[in-house]
Design brief:
Number of strands: 2
Mean pLDDT: 82
Shape: elongated
Strand order of the largest sheet: 1-2
Number of helices: 5
Length: 161
């Protein structure tokens, strides 16, 4: 198939928006579904995970399609790992980084708190899901989401953007 030639009537670099909003919305809905319905909370999640779900719902309430129904599992996973991280963090805060050993070999001596391992593993998963969902500044830049008030990336003055 030959390469498509640029229309000589259109200046080079000009962005032309041709899709009507209704068609664009329909196409987006096919890709990831409609906006995530935050009122349908994940079943079986503990109170800490649900609190994080509710926090995200409040933060993104103004942006109805920031997350789509197709991303429900990813947002749920993020909230579940947040809960696991918090549980491990609380254990370390209460019992410390070293605890009395419980196995026959470790009885009577101090060992590293197993919650440190759980905390580290949960934090790795949190970082992964935060990047995947664009919850960090770096991730938003990587996927092309701009920060509010970032004058360098705004196209308000460009009539062709």
């Amino acid at each position: 198939m030959p390469a498509r030639r640029a229309d000589p009537r259109i200046p080079k670099g000009l962005k032309i928006k041709t899709a009507e909003p209704a068609l664009r919305i329909a196409r987006e809905a096919e890709i990831g579904g409609l906006g995530l319905d935050w009122s349908v909370r994940p079943a079986g999640m503990d109170a800490v995970g649900l609190a994080e779900w509710d926090r995200l719902a409040e933060v993104y309430a103004h942006d109805a399609t920031r997350f789509r129904e197709g991303e429900r599992a990813a947002v749920t996973a993020y909230c579940a790992y947040w809960s696991a991280f918090e549980a491990a963090r609380k254990d370390v805060a209460e019992r410390g980084t070293v605890v009395e050993g419980r196995s026959d070999m470790d009885r009577g001596r101090l060992v590293k708190n197993p919650a440190l391992v759980a905390m580290r593993e949960a934090s790795q998963q949190l970082r992964y899901w935060a990047r995947e969902l664009g919850l960090t500044t770096d991730a938003r830049v990587r996927i092309g989401l701009t920060e509010a008030g970032d004058d360098k990336t705004r196209d308000d003055d460009n009539p062709f953007a």
